[in-house]
């Protein structure tokens, strides 16, 4: 169980001083964004999960499925295994993490993932969801808003 004295993401700080502050002020680092998204799953903040996904992908997200997964799971913990970001154009970052949860049938599950993030023209970091297919022309403008071609920009991280 997640202790209420600690942030749901596992940091010793309170939620208000950890992921809630990130949710309100925006993340400076992709690891903070990833942690705040995990806390959003724990707390059922589906709007935040959608808002922090690449804007061009947001309409392709299945809100009901996200809500269902968020609520039917008992979240057991998050371990961040590594992260980095670079001030390229556009700025990119990645986080490798392991998440543990118990499903509605009582099975304990774990999932390790390498998530990719890109900083949009509004200077906010966004999660690139590899499960959301974009009908993007590979030679067209990248949906992250960088002005570069998809194939030379976020193409490798898109579904
Ligand atoms: Zn946190
Ligand atoms: Zn891009």
TrEMBL record:
The lineage of its organism: Bacteria, Pseudomonadati, Pseudomonadota, Gammaproteobacteria, Pseudomonadales. NCBIfam families: PRK00183.1, PRK01752.1. Residues 31-129 form the YchJ-like middle NTF2-like domain. This is SEC-C motif-containing protein. Pfam families: SEC-C, YchJ_M-like. It comes from Atopomonas hussainii. It comes from the Bacteria. Signal peptide: none annotated. SUPFAM superfamilies: NTF2-like, Sec-C motif.
């Amino acid at each position: 169980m997640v202790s209420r004295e600690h942030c749901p993401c596992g940091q010793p700080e309170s939620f208000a001083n950890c992921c809630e502050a990130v949710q309100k002020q925006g993340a400076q680092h992709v690891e903070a964004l990833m942690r705040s998204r995990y806390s959003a799953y724990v707390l059922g903040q589906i709007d935040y999960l959608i808002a922090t996904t690449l804007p061009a992908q947001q309409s392709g997200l299945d809100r009901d499925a996200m809500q269902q997964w968020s609520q039917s799971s008992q979240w057991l913990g998050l371990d961040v295994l590594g992260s980095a970001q670079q001030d390229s154009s556009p700025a990119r970052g990645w986080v490798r993490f392991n998440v543990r949860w118990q499903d509605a049938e009582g099975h304990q599950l774990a999932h390790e993932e390498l998530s990719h993030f890109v900083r949009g023209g509004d200077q906010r970091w966004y999660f690139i969801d590899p499960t959301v297919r974009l009908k993007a022309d590979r030679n067209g403008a990248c949906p992250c808003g960088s002005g570069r071609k998809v194939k030379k920009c976020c193409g490798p991280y898109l579904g």
